[in-house]
Specification:
Layout lengths: L3 E4 L8 H10 L4 E6 L6 H10 L3 E7 L12 H21 L3 E4 L15 H20 L4 E4 L13 H11 L4 E6 H7 L3 H7 L4 E6 L14 H10 L6 E3 L18 H22 L1
Parallel strand pairs: 1-2, 1-8, 2-3, 3-4, 4-5, 5-6, 6-7, 7-8
Amino acid sequence: MYTYSATQWIFGNEDIETSLIRLKKYGYDGVELAGEPYKMDLERIIELLHQYEMVCTSICGIYTPERDLSSSDPAVRGNAIQYVKDCVDMAERLGAKLVIVVPAPVGKTAPDPQSSAAAEWSNAVNSLQEAGQYAAAKPVKLAIEALNRFETYLVNNLTTARRLVEEVKVKSVQIMADLFHMNIEERNHTEALRMIAPYLIHVHIADNTREAAGLGQTDFEPIMKTLAEIGYEGSITMEFLPPVSNPYLAASSDGAAEIFDDYTERSIREIKRVLTRIG
């Protein structure tokens, strides 16, 4: 039996309590919170999670240019490492099992002018080793997310994510799979999932349009069957978004509650329907 959650930052500027009420209404078990440890009232969030009998499944790191783990600028890289550590502390406090990590920030589609891809890869490895060792002591895991080529450049597919994890060689540093990015970058969903099976600790669900599951062309049946066959035991986390070029724009928007309700209900209903079908 999977734990179902949704990424709260997709609801934009909506108050966290409103989001939790929606998730509870449609049968979710928990929430994935944005990695903003400097802005969130964690005591209030803990109280609300208890009130609505929800869990915090994970922390979704928000990787902006000043949080660049691959940067060749020591100050930027140091700030990024500290940010991941602070997200790990946030996860520990909220009882979350993992923090999502993107090695190069959203919007960075090439190496910095004074650097190179090889140098930035090495920087990312070193950064993840330090952050991963910190996480291991909590214990919290780091989940490397591969973003598509239009959003970042260093880690775009699961093959590259696996290579990065195997170079880092820290057990707390693992991999997550995001179905939207996979729709762009992977030639075969099920083969890609089997390839990262030893490291897979988290899954994001969205259709090929990045909308709620069931609104696009993605065939979720073989995907969910493969997750079951490889023994995946993490949460199923919905991360649907409106059609924006930069996903972080959604975090600062004031969306329509009726659309959020529709997508939230539709996503869990579709995945549960698929799981019932495959038994």
